Amino acid sequence: MVKLHALIIDDNPGVREALEDRVESMGHTFDSVGCQDDALLRLKEQGYDYILLDLELPTRFGKTPLIPTGTNLLSQIRGSVLHRHTPVIVVTAHGHDSPDLATRVFKLGASDFVKKPFDNLETAIGDAIARRLPSTERTRISTTKRHALTPFTGGDFIVTAEAVELCGVRLCENTSGRIWQIINLLCVRTAKCVLPACSGKDLADRIKVERGEKAIAEAVKTFRKRASELLAEQAGLACDGNDIIATTPRGYQLSPKLTVEVAAGVTRKNGKVAVPEKSDGEERKQWFLTQLRKGKRLTRRDYEKQFTVSIATAKRDLASLGPQIEFVGAGEVGHYQIR
């Protein structure tokens, strides 16, 4: 018999230990964390059979605990493909157990609301698990949960004339309609050999969608959800929808985590798309080196803005150029130059 596995989220070490004892006494296993950031990391790594959530949490260790942090975390859990059906039992201290707060957390998707000192905790856990899912859906999700998921850090995104694949998992086909057209537009590189960012309006106009931006948003949302499910089930990867089609200030764009390859012979209305000779990371770095050799003073922020990449991606790319570049100056006034 598979033991139930819980995630306990509470910033108070004493309360957390008490919850751990109660969970362990029920024959369940657990992980426990004390802040929002640590909880999100755990939730991305694997699935849980249920979650005990204290609302008054800090975002990270050392910060002030706040109720909005807990409610925000609850919303994120409910928005996750892997955890959208996982029972979340909110535990609350005296003074934060008003009817209004209870109503709010139930609207956000909480399974139950238990006041400290948790007299009915075992009953709440049992009831929440019993009603969590229809048996067929529970079987499918639990199969995924038995195996810890690997956080998605990047992979080959291959577009052929028949289908789109990521890390060997087929995400959609040329019969998939609107999302197929959207992806094909997003992988046509610009004159600077970078992947374009397209607004919903631009995509709707080019595809000629009657319902405009709303139809594009719905197609992207559906694709993100389905892609995350497929990658979890078939590749054991914890992948957020934005890891594939990202929403940037300039519009929708294929994520910089992807190494995009377009198969030779794939055509668009405006002609053939060349197969890129280098990965996105190499292209970004070559552009940066070229600009520095021209004497331009560039910063990490310039790199992030040029390619719409995260701070982590920019730091990683620039660190790999360490033997060729150096940072001169300090802080905001510093910049990179060729060694």
TrEMBL record:
Keyword Signal: no
4-aspartylphosphate sites (modified residues): 54
GO molecular function annotations of the record: phosphorelay response regulator activity; transcription cis-regulatory region binding
CDD domains from the UniProt entry: REC (cd00156)
Domain Response regulatory: 5-131
Cited Pfam families: Response_reg (PF00072)
Entries under Gene3D superfamilies matching the protein: 3.40.50.2300
One of the GO biological process terms: regulation of DNA-templated transcription
Keywords of the record: DNA-binding, Phosphoprotein, Transcription, Transcription regulation, Two-component regulatory system
GO cellular component: cytosol; protein-DNA complex
InterPro entries the UniProt entry points to: CheY-like_superfamily (IPR011006), Sig_transdc_resp-reg_receiver (IPR001789), WalR-like (IPR039420)
PANTHER family: REGULATOR OF RPOS (PTHR48111), TWO-COMPONENT RESPONSE REGULATOR ORR33 (PTHR48111:SF1)
Protein name: Response regulator receiver protein
Lineage: Bacteria, Pseudomonadati, Verrucomicrobiota, Spartobacteria, Chthoniobacterales
